[in-house]
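pinned: reference chain
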Amino acid sequence: MPSRIAIIDYGSGNLHSAAKAFERASQEAATGHEVLVTTDPDQVRKAERIVLPGVGAFRDCRDGLKAVPGMWATLADEVAKGMPFLGICVGMQLMADRGHEHEVTEGFGWIAGDVRRIAPADPAFKIPHMGWNTLNLVRPHALLKDIAPGLHAYFVHSYHMELRDPTNLIATASYAQEITAIVGRDNIAGTQFHPEKSQKLGLALIANFLRWRP
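pinned: its structure tokens
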């Protein structure tokens, strides 16, 4: 039976594009993974890796995920057991302690920090932050193995994670300030940008996630 990637379907996320990108990365990297978009916690428990996408407001995504019976607890349990986990955009933000979008909302608390609105010092930099940016590597990580500097990632967001523990920061992007772009510790990682829309960089990062042995 092939190793399975569980992409969580909770009504928020670019699921079709994400699934296609993971399928393509698996084929090109010859990792042999099956990609499953699922709302079933039992299927998540049987998977080898978890991907949590997310588009929209922090509270809406949190509530949508909790509305899937058993899913919030299953993700917490499997991450605690060491299953590799990748959060994308708001899926990454949900890894934080709290989100501050409209109201304070609790996240998973896996990465110490709060998700707050980007406030560029230069008014020429508009919010949402939308478009292509290069990544500034803060520390090496398996997700960025053999990825050449200078490649662009695609961002679209108004909030970003402000970390309390700088050792969890992997990469930033410059947008009149340093924007948190990749976070991670142990068996979990998250990207504020969309790897499924980030062409060469995104496919390389996904392939690295599929090979990652934390």
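why pinned: The mean pLDDT is 94. Residues 4-211 form a domain with the Rossmann fold fold (CATH 3.40.50.880).
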